[in-house]
Amino acid sequence: MKKIAPHYDNKNILVTSPLLPPLEEFIPYLENIWQSKYLTNGGPYHQALEAALAEYLGVKHICLFSNGTLALMTALQALRIDGEVITTPYSFVATSHSLLWNGIKPVFVDIDPQTCNLDPAKIEAAITPKTSAIMPVHCYGLPCDTDAIQRIADTYGLRVIYDAAHAFAVKREGVSILNHGDLSVLSFHATKVFNTFEGGAIICPDEKIKRRIDYLKNFGFADETTVVAAGINGKMSEFQAAFGMLQLKHVDAAFGVRQRIYQRYAEALAVVPGVSLLQADAQTEWNYAYCPLFIHPEHFPLTRDQLYQQMKDAGIYARRYFYPLISQFPMYKGYESSHPDNLPVASATSQQVLCLPIHPTLTETEQVRIIDIVLAASQTAAA
Ligand SMILES: *Cc1c(COP(=O)(O)O)cnc(C)c1O
């Protein structure tokens, strides 16, 4: 295959790169840990980060976890969800895996092409007597139609747990979207906009449910001699929590850089026929967590996979989030709801999407290199 733009330097560009403050800034935090000898189990940094994040995000209560997947699994346990849960196939596998780990059957519902989120108009048809909850994802950090989803949940007596792994700090009309539903789950994995190396959290509306979640993530211990549930070990360590405290000082600046990068992509690519980007509506304060580019096969000379390969050949590692659909993996493929006929929008979208590199350390030169590949591809004569 022809190499695009050989005059560029050949440094590899990854789709994401972690937010890492200067190392020397972290040293005092480590010294404090060494001094206190508190390594985990709800130590001072853990408490400080819960308080700081609740305030920063504008939420009532937050329970920190060692990762987002354990937080999802525990959220389902906390609300005693069982039977069937309606969810989206257009997400990272951890969304559905958390259901399987709880012995719950995922029921896949198609997405809305405008937002890539669960399409509320298609939820009701998937409800059965066994349905106990809906688990939507704020995909790419863009808010779900939370009002429509809540109306359905209220009508049918269902719980709503949002997988908000992409939605750190996202607001709508000035209010955190993490306050919707019964619980919301965050991920602080290295690849996310705010990271604690590994980490996650459950956002919860009241003290009572927070207490239950705190028991569940600590083996079910309510006090020294009382075990109230078959809990798990989901605790965030002091190292992670301390890093989170430091990250919080840098995250706003990182959002600013992300927004500028996104706008540059949007300006450069808006004019290109056959590709499109997502736009947050005027009410949404987005976190620019991802930059999904959609390649429309009938109007663009290359397929998504051809463009993906051209970028890869040029050292640019764009990612196909989300391809394959969760419903295509072997442990999900057998469900009736996994059939592509049930998921036409998700199936098409997953063939069209290419997430472009976006992270605070991406330089303008690197971004130009990425944009130039899309521009050159758009001018390729149709095969
Ligand atoms: C990252 C992610 C998770 C899993 O979080 P971890 O912290 O990596 O366990 C879950 N759901 C979605 C949508 C994610 O992107």
From TrEMBL:
<dbReference type="InterPro" id="IPR015421">
    <property type="entry name" value="PyrdxlP-dep_Trfase_major"/>
</dbReference>
<dbReference type="GO" id="GO:0008483">
    <property type="term" value="F:transaminase activity"/>
</dbReference>
<keyword id="KW-0032">Aminotransferase</keyword>
<keyword id="KW-0663">Pyridoxal phosphate</keyword>
<comment type="similarity">
    <text>Belongs to the DegT/DnrJ/EryC1 family.</text>
</comment>
<feature type="modified residue" description="N6-(pyridoxal phosphate)lysine">
    <location>
        <position position="192"/>
    </location>
</feature>
<dbReference type="InterPro" id="IPR015424">
    <property type="entry name" value="PyrdxlP-dep_Trfase"/>
</dbReference>
<keyword id="KW-0808">Transferase</keyword>
<dbReference type="InterPro" id="IPR015422">
    <property type="entry name" value="PyrdxlP-dep_Trfase_small"/>
</dbReference>
<dbReference type="Pfam" id="PF01041">
    <property type="entry name" value="DegT_DnrJ_EryC1"/>
</dbReference>
<dbReference type="GO" id="GO:0030170">
    <property type="term" value="F:pyridoxal phosphate binding"/>
</dbReference>
<dbReference type="GO" id="GO:0000271">
    <property type="term" value="P:polysaccharide biosynthetic process"/>
</dbReference>
<protein>
    <submittedName>
        <fullName>Aminotransferase</fullName>
        <ecNumber>2.6.1.-</ecNumber>
    </submittedName>
</protein>
<feature type="active site" description="Proton acceptor">
    <location>
        <position position="192"/>
    </location>
</feature>
<dbReference type="InterPro" id="IPR000653">
    <property type="entry name" value="DegT/StrS_aminotransferase"/>
</dbReference>
